[in-house]
């Protein structure tokens, strides 16, 4: 018994329904479940962190889940900054960059806000944007030489073009189904800086201000994903470990005198039996249990990030299946009448991100780089988010 799965069978049959997979030569000590389906064991979960074991899947699947949680789950972040005044020594660009990295509460943003490129408005509206403002000045106080400008001073500005108020005496306001869904999923705190007003959560320092200095700016926060910019990532950390005893020899431990002393076992080693040196090396063994750790920046609860990651993975794989079916004209569900039932894949909807040209444009966009008090939106003068172009 080597303690890890060796379901080294073709991937097409790895997940075939059947009465478990135990009994395969080499032994499977990993709990795969009765039907050899992927299995999740949550060891620790709070709003910010989770540790879970994922078994019954291949390494590529585990890594796909890690990447999708890190880079495909949408949040909102400040994307454009209009500088009305900035007399601090911090340049506009640096301040705009710091503002972009402030985590904003994004609960329910997947359904509670539209990507701005999908919205019919011209310059951002209630359904695709959150506006924040920062207006502070320091006139000098007793013994104080400077003032700290922090993320707690950012304030969400109520949208002027929000949904019409309900009419108790007449017909309900006319709204599209999409608009209604956004309104019903909208979190009342959406866009507020994470930790604002919470005791024990230190705010994020944005700048230090001397006597007589002033900052006055307006920020536009949009929905986005970390594939475009890391500021949209809902996680600060996501990692997984497998094979803590290095039975598969995927790692070579360089050491001077004592390998064990210089490479102590990880905390996950207790979940697998130790290496038995009397057994020959199993060339066919594959890893099957992955020990995940994910830590959120608190814009979205970490549980929601994992759930959305799994959903997105299903959507992405479905789009690949549909595309292959379209190319080959082969559909596994094809009925005997010859109806292939091929559905046109809609990549615009499924992928949720733009094409390469948009990504390339992003770097050139820049923020409010028009000098202090220029009163111009940063970017290429279009007044649009780079995500819209
Ligand atoms: Zn809009």
Automatic annotation (TrEMBL):
Keywords: DNA-directed RNA polymerase, Transcription. One of its GO terms (biological process) is transcription by RNA polymerase II. Residues 49-323 form the DNA-directed RNA polymerase RpoA/D/Rpb3-type domain. The keyword Transcription applies. CDD domains: RNAP_II_RPB3. Pfam families: RNA_pol_A_bac, RNA_pol_L. One of its GO terms (molecular function) is DNA-directed RNA polymerase activity. Residues 157-179, 329-389 are annotated as: Disordered. Residues 351-382 have a biased composition (Gly residues). GO terms for cellular component: RNA polymerase II, core complex. InterPro entries: DNA-dir_RNA_pol_30-40kDasu_CS (IPR001514), DNA-dir_RNA_pol_insert (IPR011262), DNA-dir_RNA_pol_RpoA/D/Rpb3 (IPR011263), RBP11-like (IPR036603), RNAP_Rpo3/Rpb3/RPAC1 (IPR022842), RNApol_insert_sf (IPR036643), Rpo3/RPB3_RNA_Pol_subunit (IPR050518). Belongs to the archaeal Rpo3/eukaryotic RPB3 RNA polymerase subunit family. This is DNA-directed RNA polymerase II subunit RPB3.
């Amino acid at each position: 018994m080597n303690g890890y799965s060796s379901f080294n069978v073709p991937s097409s049959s790895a997940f075939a329904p059947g009465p478990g997979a135990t009994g395969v030569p080499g032994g499977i000590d990993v709990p795969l479940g009765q039907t050899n389906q992927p299995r999740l064991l949550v060891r620790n979960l709070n709003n910010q962190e989770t540790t879970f074991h994922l078994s019954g899947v291949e390494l590529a699947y585990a890594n796909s889940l890690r990447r999708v949680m890190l880079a495909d789950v949408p949040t909102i972040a400040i994307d454009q900054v209009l500088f009305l005044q900035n007399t601090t020594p911090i340049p506009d660009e640096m301040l705009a960059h710091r503002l972009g990295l402030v985590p904003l509460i994004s609960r329910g943003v997947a359904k509670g806000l539209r990507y701005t490129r999908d919205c019919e408005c011209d310059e951002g509206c209630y359904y695709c944007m959150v506006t924040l403002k920062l207006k502070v000045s320091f006139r000098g106080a007793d013994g104080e030489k400077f003032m700290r400008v922090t993320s707690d001073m950012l304030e969400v500005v109520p949208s002027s073009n929000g949904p019409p108020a309900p009419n108790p005496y007449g017909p309900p306001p006319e709204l599209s189904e999409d608009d209604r869904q956004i309104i019903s999923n909208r979190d009342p705190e959406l866009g507020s800086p994470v930790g604002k007003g919470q005791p024990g959560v230190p705010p994020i320092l944005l700048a230090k201000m001397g006597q007589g200095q002033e900052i006055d700016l307006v920020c536009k926060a949009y929905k986005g994903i970390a594939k475009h910019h890391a500021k949209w990532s809902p996680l600060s950390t996501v990692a997984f470990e497998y094979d803590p005893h290095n039975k598969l020899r995927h790692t070579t431990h360089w050491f001077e005198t004592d390998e064990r002393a210089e490479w102590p076992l990880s905390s996950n080693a207790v979940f697998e039996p130790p290496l038995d040196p009397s057994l020959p090396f199993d060339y066919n063994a594959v890893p099957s249990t992955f020990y995940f750790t994910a830590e959120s920046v608190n814009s979205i609860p970490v549980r929601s990030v994992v759930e959305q990651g799994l959903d997105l993975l299903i959507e992405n794989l479905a789009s690949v299946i549909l595309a292959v079916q379209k190319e080959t004209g082969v559909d596994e569900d094809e009925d005997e009448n010859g109806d292939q039932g091929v559905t046109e894949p809609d990549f615009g909807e499924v992928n949720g991100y733009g094409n390469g040209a948009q990504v390339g444009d992003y770097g050139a966009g820049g923020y409010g780089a028009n000098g202090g008090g220029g009163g111009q939106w940063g970017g290429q003068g279009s007044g649009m988010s780079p995500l819209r172009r």
